[in-house]
Specification:
With 97 residues, this protein is an alpha+beta fold. It has two helices and six strands; from the N terminus they run E-E-E-E-H-E-E-H. Strands 1-2-3-4-6-5 form a six-stranded antiparallel sheet, with helices on one face. The longest helix has 19 residues, at 78-96.
């Protein structure tokens, strides 16, 4: 298993799994959306994982920047979103091997 690390800053959380890192933008934009930037292409399964979690609802994705824009649900916690992003990166690692 590869090393998992989180680097928490005022505006972002860097989620690092092995050699891959994603960035969670912690501050909502003017529309109330938060964003996660992935180092891999966004797949429908990533959207489903977030939507099914109950902590966030995907508003849209931007395939050009591998970004998922989402709204926080009432049970949203940053650490739970970090766990979801970690799961996405770990699943990619398994399919990439």
């Amino acid at each position: 298993m590869k090393k998992i690390d989180f680097k928490i800053n005022d505006e972002t959380v860097d989620i690092i799994v092995g050699d891959e890192s994603a960035i969670l933008i912690r501050r909502p934009d003017a529309e109330g959306l938060m964003k996660v930037l992935l180092p891999i292409p966004v797949l429908p399964s990533h959207v489903a994982l977030i939507n099914d979690s109950g902590i966030a609802e995907v508003a849209y994705i931007n395939l050009d920047e591998n970004a998922i824009y989402f709204r926080r649900e009432s049970f949203f916690e940053t650490y739970l979103m970090c766990e979801l992003i970690t799961d996405i990166l770990k699943k990619h690692e398994k399919t990439d091997s």
